[in-house]
Structure formats: structure tokens, C-alpha cells
Amino acid sequence: MSNHFFKFKQFTVFHDLCAMKVGTDGVLLGAWCDIQSKKRVLDIGTGTGLISLMIAQRNQEAMIDAVEIEPDAARQAVVNFEKSPWANRLKLFGADFIHFASEATCKYDLIVSNPPYFENALKADCNKRSQARHTDSLSYEQLIAASASLLSDNGSLALIYPIEMDLKIQELAIHNKLTCTRRTVVKGNPQAAPKRLLAEFKPFGHTAGCVENELIVEAERHQYTSDYIALTRAFYLKMD
User: Fold this and answer.
1) pTM score > 0.85 for this model?
2) How many Cα atoms occupy the beta-carbon half-sphere of 91 within 13 Å?
3) Closest Cα to residue 97, out of 26, 53, 146, 155?
4) What is the pLDDT of residues 59-109, one digit of tens each?
5) What is the structure's pLDDT at 230?
6) Residue 102: how many CB atoms within 10 A of its CB?
7) In whole angstroms, what separates CA 207 from the centre of its chain?
8) Is the C-alpha dihedral spanning 44, 50, 51, 57 positive or negative?
9) How many CB atoms lie within 10 A of CB 86?
10) Beta strands of the chain (E only): which ranges?
């Protein structure tokens, strides 16, 4: 039986109520996103609250709002926030993101999301897991359009998504006047085909170009690469 929690160096994430457990995608995004000079942060579909907690650890000044529509996951995130060292900087909104965005009164310097990623695929047996993994309740179109409306002038939107969705997401970004400024192709091992993309978008006007690179998670089975260790060592207990 798997543990009901995942212990990191500075915080613990309980995930017994959540359909989607702590996973590599969330850790990657939480460690990869640019948090420099980000005062207000929004985490869309926070689930356990993992990415919010990672950002709170990395940026001691950031005030972080997290949105989660699934009630059990929202309760789980609240518990994880309250048990963390940064409870005073983390706030959970149990709401539909589109509704939240329509009533938001502030702009965000950083918006992050590990969004639902299966389109037109067979649904999981568990309704909560299905909602967490499918785009029926929050489409990419809605996610990117609403996020663009909430970004500050120098704000950034950071996402992780399946590589086969890249063309669609790039087109949606351009349609919403966002330009890609960073891209990291993620491979499980040197021989594997890329499966995920980490991407950062900023409002039109940022003309410095797009920085692109590749991240390989494992050199071989259970042997992490130096790049992955460098990215995640501040979080994982046994990564030094």
C-alpha cells in the first residue's frame, strides 16, 4: 500500500484524499518555474498544493493563491498549507477557475498550472481522478485565455503538458497575445521519446527570444541525471 503522504525536505504533502498523487510533473514545474521577483502567484488546479508549497519555499516573499474545484483535493491542500512553514502566505480558493478569474481583483506576476491533459480519451473509473486528468471541466482554451487576462505586464504563465499538445498550446498562446520565452523538453531517459514540455509564456512585447533546452530525468533506471538532481535537490530528501 502506498503512503498517504510524501515527505520533502521542508514540508510534507498528504495526498490520501486526492485522486492525483504527488508526481514528477508537479515537482518539475514547481522547481522549474521562474520565481525571481514574483510577489503574487496563482496556482491553477493545485490538487494537493504541491506546486504552491514548492514556490513558497523558493520565494520567501511571494503571496500565493491556489484554486482547486474538487472538494476533497481542496480540503487536502488546506491541510497541507496549514501544516507548512508558510501558512500565512498560502490561500486556497475552492472554486471553478473560470468563475475565480471573472471575479479576481488583482493581477499575478506568476501563474502556474499542471493542467488536465487528456483530450477525447477514455475516462478513468474514478470520477475525481477523471476530473483531474481530463480537459472537460477546464479546456486549454479556457485556461490560457483566463490566465492571460490575469497576468501583470511583466507576468509569466508556466505550464507542463504532453508534448503532443505543443502546437495547439503555442497557437492558443499567440491568440491570447502571449509569447513563449522558455521551453524545456522532458525525457524520461536518453533513449525515450520526449513526453512532456515545460513552457513559459509572457505578454507580447518581450522580444528577447525563447530559451530552449532538454532535461533528461534518469541516466538509467533509478539513476537520476545531474541536471535533474540540480533542479530538485532543494526538495527531495535523498537527492544530495
Assistant:
1) yes
2) 10
3) 146
4) 999 999 999 999 999 999 999 999 999 999 999 999 999 999 999 999 999
5) 97
6) 10
7) 25
8) positive
9) 19
10) 5-7, 12-14, 40-44, 63-67, 90-93, 108-113, 151-162, 178-187, 196-203, 211-216, 218-220, 223-224
